[in-house]
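Q: What would this complex look like in 3D?
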Amino acid sequence: QTLFLAMVDQGVSPDVVTYNSLIHGFCSSTQWEEAMKYFKEMVDGGILPNVVTYNSLLSGLCKVGRMEDAQTLFLAMVHQGVTPDVVTYTSLIHGFCNSTQWEEAMRYFKEMVDGGILPNVITYTTLIQGQCSVANWREATRLFTEMMDRQISPDVVTFNILIGTLCREGRVEDAQRFLEMIIQRGEEPDIFTYNTLMDGYCMVGQMDEAKKVLESMVGKGYKPDVVSYNTLINGYCRSKMTNEAMRLFEKMPGNGLTPDIVTYSALLTGLCRAGRFMAAQEILSDMLGLCKNKC
RNA sequence: AUGUUAGUUUUUCGCG
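A: Here is my prediction, written as structure tokens for the whole assembly.
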């Protein structure tokens, strides 16, 4: 905002992209009034909002589940002669999926296809995730096949969602097969892929396999992050292997990682459950000590 | 010419 004002002060006139950037910023931090203020200001200034402007506002509404408002805005944009694009529809579909209004999501999907707008990998991935989040594996795989049939290549995000869903259902072996499919297709799994799969093995108590995933990611040159460690620490704690959890915790600083609130929370819970209150107390005072140093 | 928009992972506790 300050930069914006400075820019106006210097006599540089904002254009549609300037406004879009501001509006997007406010929308993604759910500062709705501010976003609308700039929207009005641009219209008053004679700058026509374009599809990006509307998409930013729309995705802001969709993210917080204000789907009635999103629909109203969608109609308004069409009314203003701005043609919705694949981003517009995908945002709406995402919003409806998140509020578990599957019928509406599919209605917009059809409308989009009928209107000659081609769904892309993000559209399909959004739909797949919508079905995965309500544990409708059949429909998820149907969509997965459909997208492949339409020559739309699933990407690593698509695979991560499928892997995460299988893991949550305890089907880690199947999840592992998807990881292999990514590699077979010549694509790169990312840190999300590995962390998700690791958590899958942790959830079924196969800590040896979880550890193998960590090792294979290191072997491929990926740096485990704080989430990787938290996942394994939590896994060891739940498998009552608190010594292993502690070992990992101690290795974090050496690997350039700072334990965060999640690390401490998992470890403290694990140690307390195991009745190791002395150890828990030590960890806690370490944490509080570090906290004081920073303040 | 260039810049702006949509999808994915980990912990505890509480509430619904």
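A: To summarize the key features: Chain A has a mean pLDDT of 92. Chain A has 17 helices and no strands.
Q: Very helpful, thank you.
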